[in-house]
Amino acid sequence: MNKTEEQNSCHSGRVISFTQLNNEIKEKPQPRFGGDEIRVVDAMIDIIYPSVPFPSNKIFKTLGAEYIRKMVEHHHHLLLKTNIKTLFPQHPEALKLVIDRSVDFFVEALGGGAVFTSQHGDPHLRQRHFKIPINENDREIWLAMYKKTLKELKFPKEHLEEFWNWIEPLSIRMINRRTNTNAIKRHHWHDVKTELLQVNV
């Protein structure tokens, strides 16, 4: 393997994203197959998952399990009015089981004890959702409906930043299908702060 091939191969230890690969292809166009020289395609990953800062139990102490259930149910009812409603069970009893499981996850994640893991094991969101194809656009809708939920239920403003900084990167963990090679769009706290806090003044 010559120097050029080594630099362009996974043997160099260089693992890149779809976005980086696209940029390189645009910069160095070459035949996909049957060129004059060997062409090595880099090892790559489809998503670079950001770190997820799980919140403290201060949120649970303020909200309580009843509010969290109301929040999760509200979010699901909003989702059922969107284009991703087909991702959820249509039968009421099956839908209730999905919502109950989601409530357990949120209660535990926000500091309410091991109500999810004691019944269902570790979350592993991407793995759990893999039989249901969830792409970048689905995640955008899911997150937008959470923002709407927080506004409509007047989520306590003193905990909004901590909650959003958890739910936003967490939502990326549910993506298990890609429809494009672009980087996953982020919605950082500074992007949504004004909108959310105005409603909660």
Percent strand: under 5%
User: How many structurally independent domains?
Assistant: 2
Radius of gyration: 21 Å
SSE pattern, N- to C-terminal? HEHEHHHHHHH
CATH topology heading of the largest domain: Globin-like
Using the coordinates above, name the CATH class of the largest domain: Mainly Alpha
CATH superfamily of the largest domain: Globins
Strand order of the largest sheet: 1-2
Fraction in helix:
40-55%
DSSP E strands, number: 2
Main beta sheet: strand number and arrangement?
Answer: 2 strands, parallel
Structural class: mainly alpha
CATH architecture classification name of the largest domain: Orthogonal Bundle
Low-confidence stretches: 1-13
What gap, in angstroms, lies between the N and C termini? Answer: 64 Å
Tally of separate helices: 9
Mean pLDDT: 85
- What best-fitting shape do the alpha-carbon axes yield? elongated
Comma- or semicolon-separated keywords:
201 residues, mainly alpha, Globin-like, 2 domains, two-stranded parallel ribbon, 9 helices, 2 strands, 53% helix, 2% strand, disordered N terminus, Hemoglobin_trunc
Short description:
With 201 residues, this protein is mainly α. Helix content is 53%, strand content 2%.
Give a structural overview.
With about 200 residues, the protein is mainly alpha-helical. It has 2 domains: about 5-45, no CATH class; about 60-200, Globin-like. It contains 9 helices and 2 strands, in the order αβαβααααααα. This is Globin.
What is the topology?
Elements: H1 3-7, E1 16-17, H2 18-27, E2 44-45, H3 58-79, H4 92-109, H5 117-120, H6 125-128, H7 136-152, H8 157-172, H9 189-199
Parallel strand pairs: 1-2
Helix pairs in contact: 3-4, 3-7, 7-8, 8-9
